[in-house]
From TrEMBL:
Free-text comment about domains: Has three domains with a flexible linker between the domains II and III and assumes an 'L' shape. Domain III is highly mobile and contacts RuvB.
Function comment: The RuvA-RuvB-RuvC complex processes Holliday junction (HJ) DNA during genetic recombination and DNA repair, while the RuvA-RuvB complex plays an important role in the rescue of blocked DNA replication forks via replication fork reversal (RFR). RuvA specifically binds to HJ cruciform DNA, conferring on it an open structure. The RuvB hexamer acts as an ATP-dependent pump, pulling dsDNA into and through the RuvAB complex. HJ branch migration allows RuvC to scan DNA until it finds its consensus sequence, where it cleaves and resolves the cruciform DNA.
Keyword Nucleotide-binding set for record: yes
Species for this entry: Tenacibaculum caenipelagi
Protein name: Holliday junction branch migration complex subunit RuvA
Length: 193
């Protein structure tokens, strides 16, 4: 129905944003990740999902298409509603959610407020194949769900490299040396980027 809204950001807070589009203000529920990526009162483009229930029509806004796709996958699981999906995307990035599902990290998914053990397992069972197929996660990234990789990626991003390229290079390095330290990952990645 409404797939995106472009307009002037009128108001933002950690749970919602209001975008003025040709004189009409759209209130969108957002995650903390979207909140942190929004500028102050500039023109913005938010990808949206309209949730229609008997008692409410609720608009959800996302800074990236990837975040919206993960949100839609999450709400397709029985027992996971829009508010739990939004909470999950507030406590983890969309990439972290994908990694948690792909690596069957029940504890990480269960750490989200509102998700119990059964729901966490259902999320993994229902979405693992879809996540692996849709987002083309390699087996290495599934196995190597470690903090060294994330720290190295963050450092490379700060140095100005594109995350997607850096992720691919670090993935190749981890295939050769799975136990590489953060420093080693960064040094080898700098040679290949």
């Amino acid at each position: 129905m409404i797939t995106q809204i472009r307009g002037k950001l009128v108001e933002k807070n950690p749970t919602y944003a209001v975008v003025d589009c040709n004189g009409v203000g759209y209130l969108m529920n957002i995650s903390l990740n979207t909140f942190s990526s929004l500028p102050n009162d500039e023109n913005v483009l938010l990808y949206t999902h309209l949730s229609i229930r008997e008692d409410a029509h609720t608009l959800y806004g996302f800074s990236t298409k990837m975040e919206r796709e993960v949100f839609l996958l999450l709400i397709s699981v029985s027992g996971v509603g829009p508010s739990i999906a939004r909470t999950m995307l507030s406590s983890m990035t969309s990439e972290e959610v994908q990694q948690a599902i792909a690596s069957e990290n029940v504890k990480l998914i269960q750490s989200v407020k509102g998700i119990g053990a059964k729901t966490a397992q259902r999320v993994i069972v229902d979405l693992k194949d879809k996540v692996l197929k849709t987002f083309e996660l390699g087996e290495v990234s599934v196995i190597q769900n470690n903090t060294n990789k994330e720290e190295a990626l963050s450092a490379l991003e700060v140095l100005g490299f594109v995350r997607k390229q850096a992720d691919k290079v670090i993935g190749e390095i981890l295939k050769e040396t799975p136990e590489a330290s953060v420093e080693k990952l960064i040094k080898q990645a700098l040679k290949k980027l």
